[in-house]
Amino acid sequence: MDASELGMSADAMTRLNELKPGKPGSIFTSDLSVNEFLLVRQAGFRPLGMVLGTSIYHVGIQFRRWGRNQELETLSQAMYHARELAMDRMEAEADVLGADGIVAVRLRVELKEWGSDIAEFIAIGTAVKAEHGGDWRNNRNKPFTSDLSGQDFWTLLQTGYMPLGMVMGSCVYHVAHRTFGNVIANVGRNTELPQFTQALYDARELAMERMQKEAEALHAEGIVGVELQQHNHAWSGHTTEFFAIGTAVRPLRDDHSIPQPQLVLGLDD
């Protein structure tokens, strides 16, 4: 399969071929800290190289009602799809290296000066290979992805769990404007704004629900390291994105139980 079929450039393919294990003179690259690198090695995984995926995306527009709370589905789909493209290309690079997974993944959005509706979606991580074999791929036959730190990755494996993949949910939401009468009625008063409260509550719930559905599709037991982020990007003050992201995990064995810490008894006990 050539570079274009994998959605990457020919230069990227050349770089990855230079990183392939066993190639004379090849050295790994990694954005792991020294502590993370050592713990990943201690967990039984060898870094192969940094892998990345990118997508320059034009985010369309969607009309909204000035005084109504509503999700902007077109924008939600755009933000989700752009991140998926970046993640897929990062996973394709890991596949070229023969990796079992990608650790310490960072997923970010950078607005470009070319236009307020143009952004670059970037996924970056370190591809790793299990030194003692085993089946580490998820049920989609893809390398696992995880945004856990090297330290948390080590702890997860020590307790008998493995990462399956990064899961995410996005919701772009328009928060209704207050009427002139409402603004005047609340001048100088301490009072909740129920319309605003409900809008932000609903938007967060939609993002969380979509993240959970992704984890269910991976047959995960749960999601760890969840972050619930809010971004306004380049939209108006009344339009915002709620983005939920975490790492789906499952036990390494069906009969797994978490090891219990040993109690240290005092001399007088």
TrEMBL record:
Domain of life assignment: Bacteria
InterPro entries (alphabetical): UPF0145_dom_sf, UPF0145_YbjQ-like
Pfam families in alphabetical order: YbjQ_1
Matches recorded under Gene3D superfamilies: Hypothetical protein apc22750. Chain B
Annotated family: Belongs to the UPF0145 family.
Full protein name: Uncharacterized protein YbjQ (UPF0145 family)
Species this chain originates from: Actinocrispum wychmicini
